[in-house]
Amino acid sequence: MLNPNLRLNWLLFLFLASFNFFVNADAVNGVRDNVKEVRILHEFYDKANNNNFTLVKYYTTWCSHCKKLKPIFGTMSKEHTSLDIETLLPNTFFNKTFFDLPNFFNTKTINIDYMAVECEIFGAFEICKRWPGYPVVELIPPKTNTSISISTSKEMTENSAQDDEEEDPMWLRVFTKIDKFFERMFSGSSDLDDMSFAERSLELSGSRSETGLKEFISKGVSSDYERLLIDYLINRSVDGTVNNEIIDTYKNWIGNLGNKFVAVNEIIKTLKTGIELGELDDDVKRDLLFQKRLLSTLIGIEEQERIKNSALDEL
Ligand SMILES: *[C@@H]1O[C@H](CO)[C@@H](O)[C@H](O)[C@H]1NC(C)=O
Ligand SMILES: *[C@@H]1O[C@H](CO)[C@@H](O)[C@H](O)[C@H]1NC(C)=O
Ligand SMILES: *[C@@H]1O[C@H](CO)[C@@H](O)[C@H](O)[C@H]1NC(C)=O
Ligand SMILES: *[C@@H]1O[C@H](CO)[C@@H](O)[C@H](O)[C@H]1NC(C)=O
Predict the structure, then answer these.
(1) Inside any domain, residue 72
(2) Backbone angles phi, psi at 305, to 5 degrees
(3) 227 and 264 in one domain?
(4) 51, 83, 111: residue to mutate for ligand 2 pocket, most atoms within 8 A of CB
(5) Which positions ≥6 away from 21 have C-beta within 8 Å?
(6) Ligand 4 pocket, 239 CB below 6 A?
(7) How many domains does the chain have?
(8) Ligand 3, atom 14: nearest CA belongs to which residue?
(9) Gap from CA of 137 to ligand 3 centroid (Å)
(10) Angle between the 4-23 and 170-185 helix axes, to the nearest 10 degrees?
(11) In this structure, is residue 252 part of a structural domain?
């Protein structure tokens, strides 16, 4: 008896092999790009958890917005494959400018990989199931260890209306149901779903133009840096072995903060009015968003501890 995971992958492989004939027509026409088309689930996780940033496109062959995205994504996969990290790093926190931030990334340039997931094929798996419609573009940062789970940063935008996602047509919903049936039959296949990458990934909510995508990548990289910085600040200030200007400033800021809920509300108010009046410059806005994210993380940690303690009290 074949291991059920293997069997499922094997079935997918056969299914895909029969598709290949049509898909290859593109390559024949010379439209080659550097987008890695996922064929089996392991390929997805290999890329999602490697040392590069990965831009993932989730699509279906029928959706028209997906067709529009394809050439843009293809071009970018050839032309936009690395970024100079130093231009993206934030360096102002708590009203203070730092010139010497911890170096979490080993190099000055980061690489961007491109990956495409056809959700007619992977519809039964969590990587696709979590989306309400297609296309979706997601940026997955490299797998770096953090000791805590950091709240995701939601940009406060003046206008975050997404352009229309299409609803699944009837036949696809039926297809997905059949897929789910197979998934249950080979129960154990859900072990393949390791969604831990989703904690650090970001979903595009703006325009899918080339400019929009580039901006999204830059924002995503600096947001990931902030995630590592928050972990660094919270972790090192507790463990006491690191003492530098950044940790000192952080401790000072926390010490003068007072109630965290009140502080977070103040920040949100400042952001709102500042944005409405167009009075915030980018550095200040970024600083405030960072503070908000850091406070949300701290509040989350305290809340978890409170729940844990009250559960212990009941014993
Ligand atoms: C940052 O500076 C502004 C303006 O000087 C001040 O209103 C604000 O309270 C400061 N924020 C922090 C966290 O020190
Ligand atoms: C990361 O990107 C570089 C440059 O594009 C590439 O050579 C390398 O193979 C990628 N790393 C992995 C693990 O895919
Ligand atoms: C992340 O943590 C795991 C387990 O603690 C360890 O084996 C691995 O080397 C760490 N990776 C990095 C990049 O620090
Ligand atoms: C700090 O990080 C290290 C390594 O990831 C971890 O072992 C330690 O528990 C963390 N400390 C705190 C206070 O989170």
Answers:
(1) yes
(2) -70, -40
(3) no
(4) 111
(5) none
(6) yes
(7) 2
(8) 145
(9) 28
(10) 150
(11) no
The ligand placed nearest to the CA atom of residue 253 is 1
**CATH code assigned at 145:** 3.40.30.10
Sequence-separated (6 or more) residues with CB below 8 Å from residue 117: 38, 44, 56, 57, 58, 59, 127, 128
Inter-CA distances, 74 with 55, 67, 128, 305, Å: 11, 11, 21, 46
Ligand nearest to the CA of 281: 1
Of 212, 240, 268, which residue constitutes the final position of a domain?
240
Is 25 part of a structural domain of the chain?
A: no
Question: H helices of 49-169, where?
Answer: 64-79, 126-129
Q: How much distance in Å is there from the Cα of 94 to the middle of ligand 1?
A: 7
**Measured distance CA(167)–CA(185) in Å, rounded:** 27
Q: Write the residue with the smallest CA distance to atom 7 of ligand 2.
A: 111
| CA–CA dist 110, 50 (Å, integer) | 12
Residue 135: its H or E element: none
Beta carbon of 312 within 6 Å of any ligand 4 atom: no
pLDDT along the chain (315 residues), means of 10: 52 49 45 88 92 95 94 96 88 87 84 96 90 94 83 53 48 52 48 76 90 94 90 87 88 92 92 89 89 91 86 77
Full residue range of the structural domain in which residue 41 is found: 31-240
What is the per-residue pLDDT for 15? 52
Which structure tokens are listed for 58?
A: 């989730």
Give the integer Cα–Cα distance in Å for 269 and 263.
10
Specify whether the CB–CB gap between 36 and 116 falls below 8 A: yes
- Determine whether the shortest distance from the Cβ of 98 to ligand 1 is under 6 A: no
Ligand 4: which residue has its CA nearest to atom 9?
Answer: 147
Q: Nearest ligand to the C-alpha of residue 146?
A: 4
